[in-house]
Amino acid sequence: MSKRYRAGIIGTGMMGQLHADALNRLPAAVPVCMTGSNPEHLEEAARRYGIEKTYPSVEEMLAQEDLDSVHVCSSNQTHFEFCMAAIERGINVLCEKPLTITSKEGEALVKAAGEKNVVCAVNFNYRNNAMVREMQERVASGQAGKIYFIHGTYLQDWLMYDTDYSWRLDRSVNGPSRAIADIGSHLFDTIQCASGRRIKAVCCSAFTALEERKKPTQQVQTFAQNEGGYEVVRPDTEDGASIQFILEDGTPGAVIVSQVCGGHKNDLTLELECENYSMRWMQEDADKLWIGSRKEGKQVLYASPGTVSAQAAPYVSLPEGHAGNWRDALYNGIAHYYSVLSGAPRSLITDFADGTYIVRITEACLRSSQSRQWEEV
Question: Among 121, 176, 180, 181, fewest CB within 10 Å belongs to which?
Answer without folding.
Answer: 176
